[in-house]
Design a protein that fits this description.
The structure holds two protein chains of two kinds. Helix content of chain A is 52%, strand content 10%. The longest helix of chain A has 18 residues. Chain A has a two-stranded parallel sheet. The two termini of chain A are 46 Å apart. Chain A is built from seven helices and two strands, in the order ααααβαβαα. By secondary structure, chain A is mainly α. Chain A is elongated and about 40 Å long. By secondary structure, chain B is an alpha+beta fold. Chain B has a single domain, classed as endopeptidase domain like (from Nostoc punctiforme) (endopeptidase fold (from Nostoc punctiforme)). In chain B, the strands form two sheets. Chain B has a six-stranded antiparallel sheet, sandwiched between helices. A two-stranded antiparallel sheet of chain B has the order 6-7. In chain B, α6 packs across α7. Chain B is globular, with a radius of gyration of 18 Å. The N and C termini of chain B lie far apart (49 Å). The chains are: A mainly alpha, B alpha+beta. Chains A and B meet through α1, α3, α4, β1 and β2 of A and α1, α2, β2, β3 and β4 of B. β1 of chain A pairs antiparallel with β2 of chain B, so a sheet runs across the interface.
Chain lengths: 126, 268
């Protein structure tokens, strides 16, 4: 088993030497991409939340178009579906209102403060 | 285990990922972002610029793309690394207020299991939080397709068309593996044909959608699939192909009269 692994290492090392020389830095980053960038993304998101410039959003209901109620809501609650109907808005193509506030998802430390589950509110369940 | 990890680092870092699209969630699409490249202020400003652009055009549903890696690190024909739906919504804040804005409907890899994905909703500032470049791709479908997309997103079909078995280079013509662009394409097809029948959806994608060939050395690809759970060739019977923001844009430009594709860079 060990010799097989060393054979692979030798094979890979010889086949990717050209990349290793000019992409060693990106290689190092990419090799750790999943874990490292997950942290980076979380950090970036947390930095935004911590900046005090963003409002925490706990749910979002698609707005119906021009008074037309969208199809039957899936995992979206009946309450959400009613919200969609009530929040009917302008026809497609007409300029839409956008809040000047920046809305972000709830960071883990904020979510931990809540006693009730909040994941279903922010994860796409439909 | 350490040796396997080393092999993955050499293989993925040195040869494969450097030449492959990274279409996953926030983590892998920002592999070069082991550091945060932009300040919260820059990200907030850009995300709001994107939102206001979509709103000014009256887009209730748009297809939104970001650059998780610099273009120079991506293969030919690929520019953006992650694609999702932006849906004009009534957002309820933690303090109870309701605000108009866009919610983003993503397919993201799981953090600890990159070969598995979830459907996750976030907001524009979260979407752009870890990008390598402040640039957004936006496809605004025709009014008719937007209405149908909203119907699908707001129905059980949206989740039913999600296959959690993730592959970075998922083949949009086959079943068994799926990435963010394939799920996006499947939702678009479901909306166009007003069906949740995946066989019908795939048949039409084979007939009308032109996927992007993945130009990676087959040897490296084989080794990549051997050592990285998030890369699979099990759904690639021939030359690997995958869906991209660009190919989805071309598809809608051809078949959805009135669809518009735009690119947004930060206001100076």
């Amino acid at each position: 088993m060990e010799s097989k692994n060393w054979l692979l290492i030798t094979l890979l090392a010889s086949s990717s030497v050209a990349y290793a020389t000019d992409q060693s830095l990106s290689g190092q980053a990419a090799g750790n991409s999943v874990q490292a960038s997950a942290h980076a993304s979380a950090s970036a998101g947390h930095a935004i939340a911590a900046s005090g410039q963003a409002t925490l959003g706990v749910s979002a209901i698609p707005l119906a178009i021009g008074g037309i109620v969208s199809g039957t809501a899936g995992a979206v609650s009946a309450h959400a579906a009613r919200g969609s109907a009530q929040a009917a808005t302008r026809p497609i193509g007409a300029p839409l209102d956008i809040s000047d506030e920046t809305i972000t998802i709830m960071p883990p430390d904020e979510a931990l403060k809540n006693d009730k589950p909040s994941r279903e509110k922010i994860d796409k369940g439909i | 285990m350490k040796i396997k990890g080393l092999i993955c680092s050499v293989l993925l870092g040195g040869s494969l990922l450097a030449t492959m699209p990274v279409q996953a969630g926030s983590f892998s699409s920002s592999s070069s972002a082991t550091e945060i490249k932009f300040t919260p202020e820059q990200i907030i400003k850009f995300a709001k610029q994107v939102e206001k652009t979509m709103a000014a055009k009256g887009a209730h549903v748009a297809i939104l793309a970001r650059m998780g890696r610099p273009a120079a690190e991506l293969p030919e024909g690929m520019h953006f690394t992650h694609v999702a739906f932006a849906v004009y919504s009534q957002i309820t804040a933690a303090d109870g207020r309701t605000l108009p804005g866009y919610a983003i409907y993503n397919l993201y890899q799981q953090d600890k299991h990159p070969e598995v994905s979830d459907l996750v909703q976030d907001f524009p500032v979260d979407f752009f939080a870890g990008v390598a470049v402040l640039e957004a791709g936006i496809i605004i479908p025709s009014a008719k397709l937007q209405q149908r997309l909203l119907d699908v997103i707001n129905s059980p079909t949206y989740a039913a068309l999600h296959d959690p078995h993730y592959s970075l280079i998922a083949n949009p013509y086959t079943l068994g593996r799926q990435n963010c662009t394939e799920h996006t394409l499947d939702i678009i097809s479901a909306a166009i044909y007003q069906t949740s029948d995946i066989k019908r959806i795939k048949a039409n994608e084979i007939a009308y959608f032109k996927a992007q060939p993945v130009n990676v050395n087959p040897f490296k690809l084989a080794l990549g699939s051997l050592f990285s759970a998030e890369i699979s060739t099990s759904d690639q019977p021939d030359v690997p192909v995958t869906a991209t923001f660009e190919t989805i844009g071309k598809f809608l430009d051809k078949y959805d009269t009135g669809a518009v594709t735009i690119t947004i860079k930060p206001d100076m």
